[in-house]
Design a protein that fits this description.
Length: 289
């Protein structure tokens, strides 16, 4: 793969927290997509990161919309460009897990079913971080949030967004993280050059919400992959392709860097290990076919 583009589209002085992987993810995404990009952002952390009224740190046009309407608005913007014969502009929805897994799922499903020519990105920090760290359906088993404080931990597994969208038979789906920037950019470039609906699911460490050190975001993202917690793979026209085989480092190393897991018992950690094994048993069957 060619070297990462040194040109910067994302502007400095944005309002992200230190160590925010959502800001780093946007930086890399725009390096891949270029300036002919329009972004649709619902209520989420990135509404704040992009600055107050009159500011736009993304460096490309941004349309702010309601929590549940990312995919619907992006569909409309793309249709408008096509009516004007402007088919060289990439339209990207950029939403958090609350606005994707939960509140925006209906619009997402509709756009996927219609195979709208857009990129839908979920930067997944596994809770409603912008509004106070509440549980979402992307919150993993055992994680503490303000609505699942210990000992009332979340006792349900995380929703499988990629396989849910795969059921719509769209051309391209991928997972990514800033810990592997070349893989990240390659997947965004592939999405840009693929017609139809594309989903990219990004694991995005959040220091305030994950109760982690600002300097550890990249390490946490890397460990999410290497422990098997967050598989890096693609689904191209229904075919599953593994991007990186994890080392299957003990998940305790990943959990120990995040205060949201500090209350877990050895039994609960073993339950997480078992869930990782079961998830990979299912995935490996898909990679083998």
């Amino acid at each position: 793969m060619k070297k990462i583009n040194k040109d910067e589209i994302l502007q400095p002085n944005h309002l992200a927290c230190p160590g925010c992987a959502a800001a780093l993810s946007m930086r890399l995404a725009l390096k891949a997509l270029g300036k002919k990009t329009v972004i649709v952002i619902p209520a989420c952390c990135w509404t704040i990161i992009n600055g107050p009224l009159g500011q736009n740190y993304a460096g490309v046009p941004v349309f702010h919309t309601a929590f549940e309407t990312t995919a619907a608005v992006a569909s409309g913007i793309k249709a408008s460009f096509m009516m004007q014969n402007k088919d060289d502009i990439t339209v990207m929805g950029w939403a958090g897990d609350g606005g994707t897994f939960d509140i925006g799922l209906q619009a997402l499903s509709g756009a996927a079913e219609r195979n709208e020519d857009m990129i839908y990105v979920c930067y997944d920090n596994e809770a409603y971080m912008n509004t106070g760290i509440q549980r979402s359906s992307a919150t993993p088993y055992g994680a503490a949030t303000t609505t699942t404080p210990p000992p009332i931990i979340k006792d349900r597994p995380k929703k499988d967004l990629m396989e849910l969208v795969a059921a719509h038979n769209v051309p391209y789906i991928a997972s990514a993280t800033v810990a592997y920037p070349k893989d990240f950019i390659k997947k965004f470039e592939k999405a840009k050059n693929t017609r139809g609906f594309k989903l990219i699911h990004i694991f995005s460490p959040c220091p305030p919400g994950h109760k982690s050190l600002e300097s550890k975001s990249i390490e946490i993202a890397k460990l999410a992959v290497e422990t098997g917690v967050f598989p890096l793979y693609e689904i191209e026209n229904g075919v599953h392709k593994l991007s990186r085989k994890p080392k299957f480092t003990d998940v305790k190393e990943y959990l120990s860097l995040q205060g949201r897991f500090k209350h877990l018992t050895e039994q609960e950690i073993e339950h997480i290990r078992d869930n990782i094994s079961k998830k990979w048993e299912k995935l490996n069957k898909k990679f083998d076919t």
